[in-house]
Each structure stands twice: as C-alpha cells, then as structure tokens.
Amino acid sequence: MEQQLTLAENAPQKIAEIKNRISEIETRIGSNQSKEVDFQDMLLEKVSSYCKTNGLVLKEFPQTHCFSQQDYLIETNTIIVEGDFIKLLKLVYGLENDFEIGKVVSVKFLTNEDFRSKRLYLSAVIYYQNIKMNRS
Asked: Cβ-count burial of 128 within 10 angstroms (0-12 exposed, 13-18 middle, 19+ buried)?
C-alpha cells in the first residue's frame, strides 16, 4: 500500500510529462490540431513562392492522397520541381525545417532529357505528409 501511495503522489508530475511528450510527438509528425487550415493550400503557397524567388519550375502538384488508419488520417502530397540541384536541396531543407505542418518523408532526384534540345533537366519528386487525428 505504501508503494501505491508513493506512486499516487507522483501521478500529477508523470501526467504532465506524458502530455509534454505527446505534444512533442505531434509537433514532429505534423499533427497540428490547433490550426484549422487547408494543408494542401499552405504547402502549395510555400513551394510556389520559393520556386518563384529561386528560379525553379513547379512541374506537378497533384491532388492530396488521403489514407485513414485507426484514429489517424494521413495526407500525402507529391511535389515535382525542376531546376538546379542546390536550389532543390534548399527547398527540401526548408520544407523539413521551416514548415511545421508536416514532414518530408521521401525525396527522389531524377534527370529528364529534352529530346529537342538534347539537354538534361534535374527534377525532385518530394513526398510530404501530414498526420491528423480522425474526427468522428
């Protein structure tokens, strides 16, 4: 009984620690429930403004792919950007560190050849995800 009593005394502190850990995990995975915004619109705005200021070409920005599992909704966006390697890398870095709504889960660099001009173009395929709690 004394052990249970000491455990009960530490319960509020442990609950506060667990809540802090949960909010830290939600921040890392991108589950930002306090902001009711359209994830795709904000991502498109961020990427297109970066492309405009750095001379990159936003080739494709297809519709968001949504997947629901248990109590979570996973939104995945595919972004295809063409341009210089360093600028593409800075875009990925900026999305990873400065954009807090989700996270970069994968990046694939591809070269495409323009058969008319015989030039190679570098493009980056960026997969960006946001995880939300399902509201039922």
From this structure: buried
Burial class of residue 47 (count of CB atoms within 10 Å of its CB; 0-12, 13-18, 19+)? buried
The structure's pTM equals: 0.69
| CATH number for the segment(s) 31-133 | 3.30.70.60
Displacement of CA 74 from its chain's centroid (Å): 10
**Alpha carbon distances (Å) from 40 to 4, 27, 78, 103, 121:** 49, 18, 10, 13, 26
- Domain ranges across the chain: 31-133
pLDDT digits (tens, 9 = 90+) for 27-56: 666 554 444 457 788 888 899 999 999 999
